[in-house]
Design a protein that fits this description.
alpha+beta, 369 residues
Protein backbone atom coordinates (compact mmCIF):
# COMPACT_ATOMS: atom_id res chain seq x y z
CA UNK A 1 0.00 0.00 0.00
CA UNK A 2 1.34 3.43 -0.98
CA UNK A 3 1.20 5.57 2.17
CA UNK A 4 1.57 8.81 0.21
CA UNK A 5 -1.55 10.55 -1.08
CA UNK A 6 -1.56 11.27 -4.82
CA UNK A 7 -2.40 14.72 -6.18
CA UNK A 8 -6.12 14.00 -6.51
CA UNK A 9 -6.37 12.63 -2.98
CA UNK A 10 -4.44 15.58 -1.57
CA UNK A 11 -6.75 18.02 -3.36
CA UNK A 12 -9.80 16.09 -2.16
CA UNK A 13 -8.68 16.36 1.47
CA UNK A 14 -7.81 20.04 1.18
CA UNK A 15 -11.15 20.82 -0.46
CA UNK A 16 -13.07 18.91 2.17
CA UNK A 17 -11.23 20.62 5.05
CA UNK A 18 -11.78 24.07 3.55
CA UNK A 19 -15.45 23.43 2.78
CA UNK A 20 -16.24 22.13 6.26
CA UNK A 21 -14.40 25.04 7.91
CA UNK A 22 -16.19 27.65 5.80
CA UNK A 23 -19.67 26.15 5.65
CA UNK A 24 -20.10 24.09 8.78
CA UNK A 25 -18.50 25.90 11.72
CA UNK A 26 -19.83 25.21 15.20
CA UNK A 27 -22.37 28.07 15.18
CA UNK A 28 -23.83 26.95 11.83
CA UNK A 29 -23.93 23.38 13.10
CA UNK A 30 -25.89 24.48 16.15
CA UNK A 31 -28.44 26.31 14.00
CA UNK A 32 -28.73 23.28 11.73
CA UNK A 33 -29.46 21.01 14.70
CA UNK A 34 -32.37 23.09 15.99
CA UNK A 35 -34.01 23.08 12.55
CA UNK A 36 -36.41 20.21 11.91
CA UNK A 37 -35.20 19.35 8.38
CA UNK A 38 -31.71 18.33 7.18
CA UNK A 39 -29.69 21.01 5.40
CA UNK A 40 -30.49 20.81 1.68
CA UNK A 41 -27.75 23.36 0.89
CA UNK A 42 -24.98 21.28 2.46
CA UNK A 43 -26.20 18.09 0.77
CA UNK A 44 -26.36 19.75 -2.65
CA UNK A 45 -22.82 20.98 -2.12
CA UNK A 46 -21.73 17.40 -1.38
CA UNK A 47 -23.23 16.38 -4.74
CA UNK A 48 -21.65 19.28 -6.67
CA UNK A 49 -18.20 18.43 -5.28
CA UNK A 50 -18.60 14.77 -6.26
CA UNK A 51 -18.46 13.40 -2.73
CA UNK A 52 -21.70 11.45 -3.20
CA UNK A 53 -20.20 9.73 -6.27
CA UNK A 54 -16.98 8.46 -4.70
CA UNK A 55 -18.20 4.89 -4.06
CA UNK A 56 -20.15 4.51 -7.29
CA UNK A 57 -18.52 2.94 -10.39
CA UNK A 58 -17.88 5.16 -13.40
CA UNK A 59 -20.25 3.08 -15.56
CA UNK A 60 -23.05 4.02 -13.15
CA UNK A 61 -22.21 7.74 -13.27
CA UNK A 62 -19.87 7.78 -10.28
CA UNK A 63 -16.18 8.47 -9.80
CA UNK A 64 -15.11 4.90 -9.08
CA UNK A 65 -12.92 5.80 -6.11
CA UNK A 66 -12.56 3.68 -3.01
CA UNK A 67 -12.07 3.38 0.74
CA UNK A 68 -9.06 5.72 0.91
CA UNK A 69 -10.94 8.63 -0.67
CA UNK A 70 -13.95 7.83 1.53
CA UNK A 71 -11.72 7.91 4.61
CA UNK A 72 -10.34 11.33 3.62
CA UNK A 73 -13.87 12.76 3.44
CA UNK A 74 -15.04 11.02 6.62
CA UNK A 75 -12.08 12.32 8.62
CA UNK A 76 -12.91 15.90 7.67
CA UNK A 77 -16.61 15.37 8.42
CA UNK A 78 -15.59 14.09 11.85
CA UNK A 79 -13.27 17.02 12.46
CA UNK A 80 -16.13 19.41 11.61
CA UNK A 81 -18.79 17.42 13.54
CA UNK A 82 -20.92 17.32 10.39
CA UNK A 83 -24.30 15.67 11.02
CA UNK A 84 -25.42 15.04 7.42
CA UNK A 85 -26.10 11.32 6.65
CA UNK A 86 -23.05 10.87 4.41
CA UNK A 87 -22.16 7.48 5.93
CA UNK A 88 -25.63 6.00 5.38
CA UNK A 89 -26.16 7.16 1.80
CA UNK A 90 -22.78 7.73 0.17
CA UNK A 91 -20.92 4.87 1.86
CA UNK A 92 -23.28 2.08 2.96
CA UNK A 93 -26.11 2.42 0.43
CA UNK A 94 -23.72 3.24 -2.44
CA UNK A 95 -21.61 0.14 -1.79
CA UNK A 96 -24.66 -2.14 -1.57
CA UNK A 97 -26.38 -0.83 -4.71
CA UNK A 98 -23.14 -0.70 -6.69
CA UNK A 99 -22.56 -4.39 -5.93
CA UNK A 100 -25.90 -5.50 -7.40
CA UNK A 101 -27.26 -5.78 -10.91
CA UNK A 102 -30.96 -5.28 -10.15
CA UNK A 103 -32.61 -3.06 -12.79
CA UNK A 104 -33.62 -0.23 -10.45
CA UNK A 105 -30.14 0.15 -8.89
CA UNK A 106 -28.70 2.21 -11.76
CA UNK A 107 -31.49 4.79 -11.56
CA UNK A 108 -31.21 5.04 -7.77
CA UNK A 109 -27.44 5.52 -8.01
CA UNK A 110 -27.89 8.36 -10.50
CA UNK A 111 -30.40 10.03 -8.18
CA UNK A 112 -27.93 9.60 -5.33
CA UNK A 113 -25.06 11.15 -7.27
CA UNK A 114 -27.24 14.15 -8.14
CA UNK A 115 -28.15 14.68 -4.49
CA UNK A 116 -31.84 13.89 -5.13
CA UNK A 117 -31.98 10.79 -2.94
CA UNK A 118 -31.01 10.04 0.65
CA UNK A 119 -31.21 6.44 1.82
CA UNK A 120 -31.73 5.09 5.32
CA UNK A 121 -29.92 1.91 6.40
CA UNK A 122 -32.06 -0.44 8.49
CA UNK A 123 -29.78 -3.24 9.69
CA UNK A 124 -30.02 -3.06 13.50
CA UNK A 125 -32.56 -4.80 15.70
CA UNK A 126 -33.01 -4.89 19.46
CA UNK A 127 -32.79 -8.68 19.65
CA UNK A 128 -29.77 -9.24 17.41
CA UNK A 129 -27.59 -6.32 18.59
CA UNK A 130 -24.70 -6.03 16.11
CA UNK A 131 -25.31 -9.19 14.06
CA UNK A 132 -27.15 -7.92 10.98
CA UNK A 133 -26.63 -11.31 9.27
CA UNK A 134 -29.22 -12.89 11.62
CA UNK A 135 -32.24 -10.55 11.48
CA UNK A 136 -35.62 -11.47 12.98
CA UNK A 137 -37.33 -9.34 10.33
CA UNK A 138 -39.02 -11.62 7.80
CA UNK A 139 -39.65 -11.39 4.08
CA UNK A 140 -42.34 -13.25 2.12
CA UNK A 141 -42.93 -13.63 -1.60
CA UNK A 142 -46.17 -13.77 -3.55
CA UNK A 143 -45.36 -14.17 -7.23
CA UNK A 144 -43.00 -11.33 -8.09
CA UNK A 145 -44.02 -9.22 -5.09
CA UNK A 146 -42.06 -9.12 -1.85
CA UNK A 147 -43.36 -8.05 1.57
CA UNK A 148 -41.27 -7.38 4.69
CA UNK A 149 -42.41 -7.43 8.34
CA UNK A 150 -40.47 -6.63 11.49
CA UNK A 151 -38.88 -3.83 13.49
CA UNK A 152 -35.61 -2.00 12.91
CA UNK A 153 -33.89 0.28 15.40
CA UNK A 154 -31.32 3.07 15.08
CA UNK A 155 -31.83 3.38 11.34
CA UNK A 156 -28.98 5.50 9.99
CA UNK A 157 -30.20 8.45 7.94
CA UNK A 158 -33.58 8.46 9.64
CA UNK A 159 -34.91 11.42 7.62
CA UNK A 160 -34.72 9.44 4.36
CA UNK A 161 -37.63 8.50 2.09
CA UNK A 162 -36.11 5.17 1.01
CA UNK A 163 -34.53 2.38 3.04
CA UNK A 164 -32.32 -0.66 2.61
CA UNK A 165 -33.47 -3.44 4.95
CA UNK A 166 -32.06 -6.88 5.77
CA UNK A 167 -34.60 -9.66 6.37
CA UNK A 168 -34.89 -13.45 6.29
CA UNK A 169 -36.98 -15.46 3.85
CA UNK A 170 -37.02 -18.85 5.53
CA UNK A 171 -33.37 -19.68 6.16
CA UNK A 172 -32.04 -17.29 3.55
CA UNK A 173 -30.81 -13.74 4.15
CA UNK A 174 -32.07 -11.03 1.81
CA UNK A 175 -31.41 -7.34 1.21
CA UNK A 176 -34.48 -5.34 0.27
CA UNK A 177 -35.24 -1.87 -1.05
CA UNK A 178 -38.22 -0.01 0.41
CA UNK A 179 -39.34 3.07 -1.46
CA UNK A 180 -41.77 5.45 0.24
CA UNK A 181 -43.70 5.11 3.48
CA UNK A 182 -46.55 2.73 2.54
CA UNK A 183 -46.86 0.05 5.24
CA UNK A 184 -44.16 1.73 7.28
CA UNK A 185 -44.43 3.28 10.76
CA UNK A 186 -41.50 5.60 11.40
CA UNK A 187 -40.41 7.30 14.63
CA UNK A 188 -37.71 9.86 13.85
CA UNK A 189 -35.48 11.31 16.55
CA UNK A 190 -32.05 12.72 17.27
CA UNK A 191 -29.42 10.70 19.06
CA UNK A 192 -27.39 12.32 21.84
CA UNK A 193 -24.65 13.23 19.35
CA UNK A 194 -27.27 15.25 17.37
CA UNK A 195 -27.44 12.93 14.37
CA UNK A 196 -30.80 11.95 12.88
CA UNK A 197 -31.97 8.35 13.31
CA UNK A 198 -35.28 6.52 13.24
CA UNK A 199 -37.01 3.38 14.44
CA UNK A 200 -39.19 1.77 11.79
CA UNK A 201 -41.87 -0.89 12.06
CA UNK A 202 -42.70 -2.81 8.90
CA UNK A 203 -46.01 -4.64 8.43
CA UNK A 204 -46.30 -6.45 5.09
CA UNK A 205 -44.42 -3.50 3.62
CA UNK A 206 -43.92 -3.70 -0.18
CA UNK A 207 -40.24 -4.22 -1.01
CA UNK A 208 -37.93 -4.95 -3.91
CA UNK A 209 -35.26 -7.63 -3.64
CA UNK A 210 -31.67 -6.38 -3.96
CA UNK A 211 -29.80 -9.62 -3.26
CA UNK A 212 -30.46 -12.98 -1.59
CA UNK A 213 -28.59 -15.89 -0.07
CA UNK A 214 -24.83 -16.08 -0.38
CA UNK A 215 -24.73 -13.01 -2.59
CA UNK A 216 -26.46 -10.92 0.09
CA UNK A 217 -24.05 -12.18 2.76
CA UNK A 218 -21.04 -11.36 0.56
CA UNK A 219 -22.36 -7.84 -0.17
CA UNK A 220 -23.03 -7.20 3.52
CA UNK A 221 -19.60 -8.50 4.57
CA UNK A 222 -17.77 -6.28 2.08
CA UNK A 223 -19.93 -3.27 2.88
CA UNK A 224 -19.44 -3.70 6.65
CA UNK A 225 -15.65 -3.76 6.28
CA UNK A 226 -15.71 -0.63 4.13
CA UNK A 227 -18.19 1.16 6.41
CA UNK A 228 -16.23 0.20 9.54
CA UNK A 229 -13.14 1.91 8.15
CA UNK A 230 -15.25 4.96 7.30
CA UNK A 231 -16.38 5.04 10.93
CA UNK A 232 -12.74 4.75 12.03
CA UNK A 233 -11.79 7.70 9.82
CA UNK A 234 -14.59 9.83 11.27
CA UNK A 235 -13.46 8.91 14.80
CA UNK A 236 -9.92 9.97 13.89
CA UNK A 237 -11.34 13.28 12.67
CA UNK A 238 -13.18 13.75 15.97
CA UNK A 239 -9.98 12.94 17.87
CA UNK A 240 -7.88 15.46 15.93
CA UNK A 241 -10.62 18.10 16.16
CA UNK A 242 -10.85 17.73 19.94
CA UNK A 243 -7.07 17.84 20.28
CA UNK A 244 -6.77 20.99 18.12
CA UNK A 245 -9.52 22.70 20.16
CA UNK A 246 -7.69 21.81 23.38
CA UNK A 247 -4.33 23.07 22.13
CA UNK A 248 -5.88 26.46 21.34
CA UNK A 249 -7.55 26.52 24.76
CA UNK A 250 -4.45 25.81 26.88
CA UNK A 251 -2.53 28.51 24.99
CA UNK A 252 -4.88 31.24 26.23
CA UNK A 253 -6.35 29.93 29.52
CA UNK A 254 -4.33 31.26 32.46
CA UNK A 255 -3.91 30.04 36.04
CA UNK A 256 -1.51 31.43 38.67
CA UNK A 257 -0.08 33.96 36.20
CA UNK A 258 0.77 31.40 33.47
CA UNK A 259 -1.07 29.88 30.56
CA UNK A 260 -1.97 26.21 31.03
CA UNK A 261 0.38 25.35 28.17
CA UNK A 262 3.34 26.50 30.27
CA UNK A 263 2.75 23.89 33.00
CA UNK A 264 4.83 20.75 32.55
CA UNK A 265 2.01 18.46 33.60
CA UNK A 266 -0.15 19.87 30.78
CA UNK A 267 2.66 19.38 28.27
CA UNK A 268 3.12 15.75 29.35
CA UNK A 269 -0.58 15.00 29.11
CA UNK A 270 -0.82 16.58 25.65
CA UNK A 271 2.26 14.67 24.47
CA UNK A 272 0.50 11.45 25.46
CA UNK A 273 -2.55 12.49 23.45
CA UNK A 274 -0.40 13.13 20.37
CA UNK A 275 1.07 9.61 20.70
CA UNK A 276 -2.46 8.19 20.86
CA UNK A 277 -3.43 10.18 17.77
CA UNK A 278 -0.43 8.90 15.80
CA UNK A 279 -1.19 5.31 16.80
CA UNK A 280 -4.81 5.73 15.71
CA UNK A 281 -3.74 7.10 12.32
CA UNK A 282 -1.35 4.17 11.85
CA UNK A 283 -4.16 1.73 12.59
CA UNK A 284 -6.39 3.50 10.08
CA UNK A 285 -3.75 2.97 7.39
CA UNK A 286 -3.37 -0.67 8.44
CA UNK A 287 -7.12 -1.30 8.33
CA UNK A 288 -7.45 0.30 4.90
CA UNK A 289 -4.54 -1.79 3.61
CA UNK A 290 -6.34 -5.03 4.52
CA UNK A 291 -9.65 -4.25 2.80
CA UNK A 292 -8.74 -6.01 -0.44
CA UNK A 293 -7.22 -9.04 1.29
CA UNK A 294 -8.61 -12.19 2.88
CA UNK A 295 -7.87 -10.66 6.29
CA UNK A 296 -10.21 -7.69 5.80
CA UNK A 297 -12.47 -8.71 8.69
CA UNK A 298 -9.51 -9.14 11.05
CA UNK A 299 -7.88 -5.88 9.93
CA UNK A 300 -10.98 -3.74 10.24
CA UNK A 301 -11.92 -5.25 13.61
CA UNK A 302 -8.44 -4.59 15.01
CA UNK A 303 -8.37 -1.08 13.59
CA UNK A 304 -11.76 -0.17 15.00
CA UNK A 305 -10.92 -1.52 18.45
CA UNK A 306 -7.69 0.48 18.68
CA UNK A 307 -8.87 3.68 16.98
CA UNK A 308 -12.08 4.01 18.99
CA UNK A 309 -10.20 3.19 22.19
CA UNK A 310 -7.74 6.00 21.40
CA UNK A 311 -10.49 8.40 20.32
CA UNK A 312 -12.50 7.83 23.49
CA UNK A 313 -9.40 8.38 25.65
CA UNK A 314 -8.22 11.51 23.81
CA UNK A 315 -11.66 13.14 23.65
CA UNK A 316 -12.26 12.36 27.33
CA UNK A 317 -8.91 13.88 28.27
CA UNK A 318 -9.67 16.97 26.16
CA UNK A 319 -12.96 17.45 28.00
CA UNK A 320 -11.08 17.06 31.29
CA UNK A 321 -8.49 19.67 30.27
CA UNK A 322 -11.31 22.18 29.78
CA UNK A 323 -12.82 21.64 33.21
CA UNK A 324 -16.54 22.28 33.56
CA UNK A 325 -16.70 24.16 30.27
CA UNK A 326 -15.88 20.94 28.46
CA UNK A 327 -19.25 19.37 29.18
CA UNK A 328 -21.44 22.29 28.12
CA UNK A 329 -23.48 22.06 24.93
CA UNK A 330 -22.34 25.54 23.88
CA UNK A 331 -18.71 24.41 23.49
CA UNK A 332 -17.55 21.92 20.81
CA UNK A 333 -15.13 19.69 22.71
CA UNK A 334 -17.84 17.71 24.51
CA UNK A 335 -19.60 17.08 21.19
CA UNK A 336 -16.51 15.27 19.90
CA UNK A 337 -16.73 12.87 22.85
CA UNK A 338 -20.45 12.30 22.25
CA UNK A 339 -19.89 11.46 18.60
CA UNK A 340 -17.03 9.08 19.39
CA UNK A 341 -19.19 7.22 21.92
CA UNK A 342 -21.84 6.72 19.21
CA UNK A 343 -19.27 5.65 16.61
CA UNK A 344 -17.91 3.09 19.06
CA UNK A 345 -21.29 1.28 18.94
CA UNK A 346 -21.70 1.45 15.17
CA UNK A 347 -21.29 -1.85 13.23
CA UNK A 348 -20.12 -3.62 16.39
CA UNK A 349 -18.89 -2.25 19.72
CA UNK A 350 -15.38 -2.72 21.15
CA UNK A 351 -16.23 -6.06 22.78
CA UNK A 352 -17.54 -7.35 19.46
CA UNK A 353 -14.45 -6.20 17.57
CA UNK A 354 -12.11 -7.67 20.18
CA UNK A 355 -13.96 -11.01 20.00
CA UNK A 356 -13.52 -11.05 16.22
CA UNK A 357 -9.80 -10.43 16.57
CA UNK A 358 -9.43 -13.18 19.19
CA UNK A 359 -11.43 -15.65 17.07
CA UNK A 360 -9.12 -14.97 14.12
CA UNK A 361 -6.06 -15.52 16.27
CA UNK A 362 -7.54 -18.71 17.70
CA UNK A 363 -8.28 -20.08 14.23
CA UNK A 364 -4.73 -19.22 13.12
CA UNK A 365 -3.33 -21.15 16.10
CA UNK A 366 -5.48 -24.17 15.30
CA UNK A 367 -4.51 -24.22 11.63
CA UNK A 368 -0.91 -23.26 12.28
CA UNK A 369 -1.38 -20.12 10.12
Amino acid sequence: MDLQLDDMQTMLRQTARRFVAENHDFDKRTRSIVSEAPSETIWRSFAEMGWLALNIPEKAGGLGCGPVETALIMEELGRGLVTEPYLATAVVAANILAATDVPFAAERLREMVAGDLRIGIALSESATRFDCLEPTTTASRNGNEWRVSGSKRLVLGGESSAYIVCARNGGELGLFWIDGTQGLATRKYRTFDDHRCADIDLCNTPAQLIAAGGRAVAILDEMLNHATMAVCAEALGCLTGALATTIEYVKVRSQFGKTLAEFQVTQHRLANLFVQADQARSMLLYGLSTLSSADAGFGTAGAKFKILDAARFVCGECVHQHGGMGVTTEYPVGHYLRRVLMLEKMFGDSSTQLRRVMERWASADVSGG
